[in-house]
Amino acid sequence: MNRLVLSVVALVALSACCQGHPDIDFPFGRIVNGEDAEIESFPYQVSIQTTKGSHFCGGSLIDSETILTAAHCMQSYAANELQVRLGSKSRSSGGEVVGVRAFKFHEGYNSKLMVNDVAIMKLSTPVRQTSKIRAIELESSQPVSGTPAVVTGWGTKCFLVCSSPDNLLQVTVDLLHYTDCASDTFSYGAESIRETMVCATGEKKDACQGDSGGPLVANGKQVGVVSWGQGCAWSNYPGVYADVPSLKQWIEDTSATL
């Protein structure tokens, strides 16, 4: 299961069909033990919404008309059903709201294995970059394990049944190379953690419900996209992200042609 926000009723209905790995739960996505964030500090952060204004995923602005998010966020929608709010720490007001012209998720995305969990969205009109709306650069090489990173989003503050904050939250975590994340030090194992993933861990800190598709940033560059995990901030189960460096070529090629 991925990290989208669903109602408890929907979660129960889906529980029988969305167990992608044996004994691995894929919960939907939220910031755990985070702090309030100002949009000026994270001007690349966007809220992906239905046209009725319902936030369901995060994303990042990577140029004036392109949003990077998670593939699992986009599976149930058409482009004309979506909008993006940029330039506001509130997911419900302020900033700019722009429609979506088109989107595409990675052809190799697999909802059971959660590999290649990235998608590109094209805005209906380009945005003017300001102090509150600014594209982020994508990382080309994988940072070493232990590198501090920050993840942002509007997800709920606890696992499953919690209200979602209206204002943006941030949390600092430490990166884990996929080989370290797949090692015996943690509980996922090599069958679950693949080359197109990167992990991040912190003491009772994580991204979870509502943060799916949001950016993981280290040294001012985006290194990951919030994807999946076992619980949220659970001991020995780091958060798992789509690895931007290994997927960068696809992201750039798709952005240029979509």
Would you mind describing this structure in some detail?
It is globular and about 45 Å long. The strands form 2 sheets. Strands 9-10-11-14-13-12 form a 6-stranded antiparallel beta barrel. Strands 2-3-4-7-6-5 form a 6-stranded antiparallel beta barrel. The protein contains 3 helices and 14 strands. With 258 residues, it is mainly beta. The longest helix is centred in the last third of the chain and has 14 residues. The N terminus is likely disordered. The protein starts with 7 loop residues before the first helix and ends with a helix. Keywords: Disulfide bond, Hydrolase, Protease, Secreted, Serine protease, Signal, Zymogen. One of its GO terms (biological process) is proteolysis. One of its GO terms (cellular component) is extracellular region. One of its GO terms (molecular function) is serine-type endopeptidase activity. This is Trypsin-like.
